[in-house]
Amino acid sequence: MTLHHIELWVKDFDRSRASLGWMFERLGYVLKDSWRNGASWQGEGYYLVLESGPDVRGAHERRDAGLNHLAFSVASEREIDAITVESKDHGWQVMFADLHPHAGGPDHYGAYLENPEGFEVEIVVG
């Protein structure tokens, strides 16, 4: 058994696509399908969906019950550094900047990034 897909409901699809869509593609996901208020990106074995519409209520708050963040692995610390720098041009900010890139502890090298809608993405070597 494996994960089939993850669907994120967003308040503003265009704004989310500019940050989350960019991140998905930067991490190797390929745009699979798009429609008026949504799109999907195919990864290895599963896909990611961003969708907005009249059923979406309120803004995302990662500290509420539910999804806190998505974590992705990359090949190297160098790639984490490159994504961190590039992400700023796409609306992302580094979380826990005073501890970056060891916000997960002294033996953990990663980036904790937050987009304008409050979605968090963690990038780790794996």
UniProtKB/TrEMBL annotation:
GO molecular function: phosphoglycerate mutase activity
Top-level division of the source organism's lineage: Bacteria
Native organism: Psychromicrobium silvestre
Domain VOC: 2-126
Entry keywords, A to Z: Isomerase
A Pfam family assignment: Glyoxalase_4
Stretches of the chain forming a coiled coil according to its record: none
Name listed for the protein in its UniProt record: Putative phosphoglycerate mutase
InterPro entries from the UniProt entry: Fosfomycin_Res_Enzymes, Glyas_Bleomycin-R_OHBP_Dase, VOC_core
PANTHER family named among the record's database cross-references: FOSFOMYCIN RESISTANCE PROTEIN FOSX (PTHR36113:SF6), LYASE, PUTATIVE-RELATED-RELATED (PTHR36113)
PROSITE patterns: VOC (PS51819)
Lineage: Bacteria, Bacillati, Actinomycetota, Actinomycetes, Micrococcales
Enzyme class: isomerase
EC nos: 5.4.2.12
